Amino acid sequence: LFPPPGQESVDPQKTAFLLRKAWTLYSVTPLYRFRRARLRDYARLLSAFIAAEKQKGLAVEVGVELDIKVALSSLAELRGSELDQAALLVQLSSRSRASSRNSEDKLVWSGWFCSVFGDDLSENLPEDFTSLPLFLSHGAESYTALVGSWFQKTFDCCFRRLAISPQNLSWMVAMWAGCKLDRAASAVELVFSVPRLAQPLDISYAIHPEDAKALWDTVQKTPGEITQEEVDVFMDCLYAHFHRHFKIHLSAAKLVKVSTAVASAHCDGIVKILHSQYLPGVLMLLTELAISQIQ
Amino acid sequence: MDENVAEYIRRTVLKIPRDEIKMMLQKWGFLSEAQLQTLNFYQIKDNISQEVVHLCEENSADIKQAAVLDIIYNHIYQDKRIWSVYQMKKSGEELEYFDITDFKKKFKRRIRSALKNVTITFKEYKDNAIWIRVAWGTPQKKPNQYKPTYVVYHSQTPYVFISASVLKSNMPLLCQALIVASNYHDIREMELRSHSLNSLKDIVFKRYSQNFQTYTTKPLQGGNVEPENADIRIVQENRSEKERIYRVNQEVFGSGPQPKLEFAQYRLETMFKSDPKMDVLDKKEPFRCLVKFSSPHLLESLKSLAPAGMADAPLSPLLTCIPHKARNYFKIREKKGLFPESFVSP
Fold first, then answer.
1. CATH number of residue B307's parent domain
2. N or C, which end of chain A is more exposed by having fewer CB within 10 Å?
3. How many domains does chain B have?
4. Which structural domain range is residue B15 located in?
5. Tell me: the pLDDT tens digits for B34-85?
6. Do B179 and B121 lie in a common domain?
7. Which of B44, B77, B110 is the last residue before a domain boundary?
8. Is B17 in the same domain as B114?
9. What are the residues facing B330 on neighbouring strands?
């Protein structure tokens, strides 16, 4: 499963920008009449849209005079199979009017659309629709809103924040805890929250990565395949170990964040990918979540 | 007046909320009542602090006086800092007469013998607390007034509360000076940290209501667990279980308010044990975990878990022992021998 066939290694240089950044996740319905050939046009139109919105007083940064430059590009490598659309990257850079001599553009916001093994959605699409169900953004929320509303107006699509349920977070932590890593890995951490008490309680449960992997290895029966039952057993083991010590039922608390050396994910739909080796696997899982939210 | 002192006073005043500035300056007592009358406390803080600096100039303030103002601020806003607890040990049992002047002299002498560039300031409070502020320099540099260490010492006890600056390299010297000045022979850091200085004092001075290990079968007086139900058709399920939980909780936590801690940390090095049917991990080595609990008021939060159905009652002794063991950092290993289910905490 990872890495996907025909894609032994994604060029690390091209995907370096993805790593170690906190990406906010959205699901996006298919884009209507999106044309790859027109990326330059789209960039111009989006740029004009942003400038117009700023004129209207929906300024992003008050008191800072910035020209926003828009760049759209395709990332052919970021996809699961030939059936997937190539990823689409949107970058907003600023050049301060004050220092036009040292004109060095500063990247202020990036967002990208992708589909990694998103066949479930793309298979039955009518023509004229492009399926890129997963959207990830990094940068000021106000820019995300601007870019999102332009795409929604232009391609008649719909963005929705992608929340990650505790069940999906469990799946992620089990899967990522089992990943084999060359370098020394960071702990496998689960963060729980018990908000409805008079005094809210947060619990961080961090397991040595070797021990977490050893546990997962005894739970997983078929290599390359993960079942819900195996994830449940893994989590039950962790809950039982915790209960033995503290007499607290962790399963009744809300799992809000999981963190491993491969990636971390927060229930509000924020993800950080730390290791390029498992990038395709992570994106595939997130694509699946996005598609479930759309359907 | 030295411009560094002026700037330090200005920045200290800026930290104070506007409607408390007058009170703090009065507590400080360095400016006369007449001078305080000239201050306009209804303008923006920037202007107030500038005016205060001018008045301090009139009185030729030096760093010693400025440091006292800083102590006053930190005494009132003590909960903004994190405090660690240290315990000192005496070789003999004799209770010696505590002489504050002697203490201050010995403390200053010990520090200055190792480091000339320090600012040392003392302030005594009514509850027998001696506050010490130390600003540290180096042989080449003057003391950094913006990163001082605060020490609170209750002379009738072996406990010292320290809010360290980030300059941790000075801790050994500070500890030395404390034991020399107070006539103890050793000092060790306890595994107990919190923002609430008063709660730390409550814990080590045993000022909180402690649990009693008596098991009574009748419910405590006035222990009406559920809110009044106007509609008598609504019946509480598991009423007896709820009452049992409430009772056990009271026994284990005590009935008074809990000391205020914000976190507890457990480094677990115990074995992973599972139901043999599950056919999972059966290593001979510890399952290494680090567990951190955090809450605005941890002990009250833990106390509410069983009634909320989130935990068993009684809660684990690993958690309920926090106040009487006076620690919130633990390392837990498996106890070998007869009772494999129990843990030992070194």
1. 3.10.20.720
2. C
3. 3
4. 3-77
5. 999 999 999 999 999 999 999 999 999 999 999 999 999 999 999 999 999 9
6. yes
7. B77
8. no
9. B266
Q: A172, exposed or middle or buried, with CB in 10 Å at 0-12, 13-18, 19+?
A: buried
Domain boundaries, chain A: 12-161, 166-267
| B66 and B104 inside one domain | no
Q: What does the alpha-carbon distance between residue A189 and residue A163 come to, in Å, rounded to a whole number? A: 19
A252 vs B contacts (CB less than 8 Å): 309-310
DSSP state of B137: -
The partner residue sitting opposite A233, judged by closest CB among B278, B287, B301, is: B278
Displacement of CA A170 from its chain's centroid (Å): 16
- A251 at B interface, C-beta within 8 A: no
What are the two backbone dihedrals, phi and then psi, of residue B46, each rounded to the nearest 5 degrees?
A: -55, -45
pLDDT digits (tens, 9 = 90+) for A37-80: 999 999 999 999 988 887 777 655 554 556 788 999 998 888 88
Tokens 């905490």 appear where?
B345
Amino acid identity, position A181 = L
Contacting residues of B for A249, CB less than 8 Å apart: 309-312
Largest CA distance in chain B: 82
Reported pTM = 0.82
Specify whether B110 is located in the same domain as B186: yes
The secondary element (H helix, E strand) that includes residue B270 is: strand B263-270
A184 touching B (Cβ < 8 Å):
no
Q: In this structure, are residues B170 and B150 in contact, taking their beta carbons and an 8 Å threshold?
A: no
The nearest CA of chain A is from the CA of B228 a distance in Å of: 19
The 8 Å CB, 24+ separation contacts for A179-186 are A179/A213, A179/A260, A179/A261, A179/A262, A179/A275, A179/A277, A179/A278, A180/A213, A181/A209, A181/A261, A181/A262, A181/A275, A181/A277, A183/A261, A185/A209, A185/A210, A185/A260, A185/A261, A186/A259, A186/A260, A186/A261
Best residue in A235, A236, A248 for a mutation probing chain B (most B CBs within 10 Å): A248
DSSP string, A173-225: HHHHHT---SSPPPPEEEEEEETTSSS-EEEEEEE-HHHHHHHHHHH--STT-
Ramachandran sector of residue A38 (left: φ over 0; alpha: ψ -120 to 50; beta: rest): alpha
> Is residue B302 located within the same domain as residue B318?
yes
Task: With respect to residue B227, please indicate whether it lies within any of the assigned structural domains.
Answer: no
A137-161 per-position pLDDT tens digit: 999 998 999 999 999 999 999 999 9
Beta strand B159-163 with B149-154: parallel, antiparallel or unpaired? Answer: antiparallel
Domain identity same for B98 and B148: yes
Q: What is the pLDDT of residues A255-294, one digit of tens each?
A: 999 999 999 999 999 999 988 888 888 899 999 999 999 8
b/e per residue A11-24 (b: at least 16 CB within 10 A) = eeeebeebeeeebb
| Inter-chain contacts counted by CB atoms under 8 A, chains A and B | 120
Among the candidates B23, B52, B77, a domain finishes at B77
- E strands in chain A: 22-28, 31-32, 66-75, 87-96, 106-114, 129-130, 134-139, 159-161, 188-194, 201-207, 254-259, 263-266, 270-273
Q: Are residues B179 and B245 in the same domain?
A: no
User: How many percent of chain A have pLDDT more than 90?
Assistant: 60
Q: Collect contacts of A64-71 with beta carbons under 8 A, ≥24 apart.
A: A64/A96, A65/A96, A65/A97, A65/A98, A66/A94, A66/A95, A66/A96, A66/A97, A66/A108, A67/A94, A67/A95, A67/A97, A68/A92, A68/A93, A68/A94, A68/A108, A69/A93, A69/A94, A69/A95, A69/A105, A70/A43, A70/A44, A70/A46, A71/A43
